[in-house]
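Protocol step 6 of 9: fold each sequence in the batch and record its structure tokens directly after the sequence line. For illustration, a two-sequence batch is reproduced in full.

Sequence one:
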Amino acid sequence: MKGDMNSKKFELDYKMKTETAVYETDIQHDFSLRTGALFVHANKPWNNKAYGAEERLPNIFAIHNYANQNKWRILGSVDRHFYEDVELIRNKGGVFVDHCMNGTFGQLRLPELEVQRDIYVKTKDGPMLGIRICTEEELRKFVESDAQVIFEKQSYDVDTNPNFKPVMKLLLDSGIKNIVFDGFATDYCVKAAVLATARYKDYFNTKLGIYVATDAIEEVDIDFSGKIYPLFGKSALEEMTNAGARLVTTQDVLEGKI
């Protein structure tokens, strides 16, 4: 009975709040800038001008600012790596160089995203520590705030954060009807976040518009074996659309066409 009362209160608290959210995927120094440890640039040749992820940043910032102006929820994710993380080359079977390491400048979100408003939903608190599962009360406070809710992860897949699923449920219960995805990288972190969201949309049997801003993302185009694969990003987009995502442009978002 107590749980039912809490659910009703939660529903009332959320009445008339925004129906749209933006999910900003791993927009961190190490991915976003050519000086980063794992700059995402789809194997494009070096250029004096902005290229790769750098070229996408103005669109990402434009969507972010538009979301703020329209009081949309802002969600997102960040890699936060420790030396023992299995996806790092330093460990047997890992495929990625050290990047977004805990405590480094490269791990930080870009300042244009107003990081002082971020609440980080952790997977674990530090090196060699176990998985951190937040209480329902903690997660409700995160979602009920007007902060930017950012999921930390030690894998490219945000769904490895055990708090992602319950937060998604709380967001859907709050009335979120649409989520726009942008960020890096199309064929890894963006795809994983979109597919996880699509799974939970079906699992919780709710209507949810899932949108991917194709000119506000960038792919790696290197597969899991480390081989250059020019169609890896395109393949990821196909997987996302097959899961129910719709491909849009930044202009579509800014013109309210979602």
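Sequence two, same batch, same settings:
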Amino acid sequence: MSASKAALHLGAVTLLVLTGSVAVAQDVTTRSETRHAETRQTELSASDIERARAWSLNETEWQRYKHLMQGIRGSVSPATLSPIEVLGIHARDEAERRQFAERWAIAMHEDAERILRFQRAYDEAAERLFPGQALINTRVLFGDTPRVDELRNSDRIILRVALDCPSCDAVVARALARIEDAAGIDIYIVGAGESQQAAIRTWAIARGIKPDWVRSRRVTLNIDDTDPDNARQSEPPPTLYVRRGERIERLAYAALK
């Protein structure tokens, strides 16, 4: 082989080696950048980690929840939708859906128990501090009272309903749809007793009354213990009123549209 051919061959080999080295270096760099990007993606802030633990979710589940809320779920659902509900709605198979449904059922049961315990403590405190005085005197809800045709954000809606009453359910649904337009809703269950607290809780959950509303007293659930023998109290549920300042007035159904 001539010297010129040998030099050319050596140059080609050197070029191949260098090209291969560059390719390997580029591949290593790409993999490193990919791993770094993945690391950044999976890193959670201290706040995120704390919230994930509060919902008993691991970091992978929390990342998926955050990703889902960046899509259509975050656009069409209220901010109060829980991470467990989001993950359950977007479950990838039946087993995962069942798992998150069970988690949510346990969370709701435990929260309902906390609410009921606080409600009992509140009732005891109210009776001890203000014996014989009801928060709202339902006896004034009967008879001729002025009718209000428009709802104000300072009003509290007052509903008298019964547990087994389809027409009551329609009024409750309309009132709950306007909860953001009022100061709150006070629901009085006609014909219920203290022994029916579990039935009242089941009734409230079935009609979409959120535990957060009850806990913050945006919605109160009360037993209507008015005297059934009083002729002025014979109006059957549902009845709809509003507390405006110190006055209680009849609220027109049209005001809830």
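Proceed to step 7 once all outputs are recorded. Observation for sequence two: The first strand starts at residue 147 and ends at 148.
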